[in-house]
Amino acid sequence: MKNFWHILKSVILYIVLTAATILMSFPLFWMISSSLKTVDETNSAGIVWVPSHPTLAAYIEIFHNQNFLRAYFNSAFYVTLALLGTLISIAAVAYAFSRIQWPGRNFIFFLMLSTMMIPAQALIVPQYVFFNKLGWIGTFNPLVIPGYFAGGAAMVFLLRQSMAQIPKELDESALVEGATRIQIWWEIILPLVKAPIATIATFLFVGLWNSLLTPLMYLQTVDLYTLPVYISTLYNINKTVQPWPTIMTAAVLTTVPLIIVFFFAQRYILDSVVVSGLKG
Fold it and tell me: Which of 33, 144, 172, 225 measures 20 to 30 Å from 207, CA to CA?
């Protein structure tokens, strides 16, 4: 009887997980399907689930679109710079909060955490005025440079907690051997927190790559548009017939880097979750 209930629970669990997977995968299916349809099929009154005659016309068109190619390069350019700067600064600040004793450390850490209670929407106008006074509007500076000042208190907190789990004896032994704090941070601590760093890097990459509001506010010229901003310009509210195959094709190509990053980072993400669970 116990085996029966165990099998029944497993079957129900697999059914629920399968249904959830199908539900979560549907937007991706619809996006790919629509990118292979014609304009008439995507704008028809009824729902066309699968294109009757799949075509790559939208892909050929988008790859010959200079604005799309420029937007792809702009996204890769600014995301790379912002991601590198943010990761390095977050790792340095997390190390200072977790491994070094200095006056007022806990108070400053509390102040940093308190910034998480400030809604991002409340900072939009002050930040815009500040960057405008610096003459940064119409450049990538507002998107890239703030990351070099450890942008993201939640990420600092996560990495700080991981670093705090490492025995302090490692630092003391290295200091006795003549290592500097920078050497300890770079050669000892960072290799031990690869999994949390990879997890944070993945979250940051997804957030930066998909960001629409911030690039839309500060870039303001077609030559600097990132992919989300460019895709938003493809939809024209004044038109009855929308170029949905082109829009969906651009969306599919925008999703590809996210899938690739998650594919290579998933092992580190799982390791981070497992280690956090064991330590908790």
Answer: 33
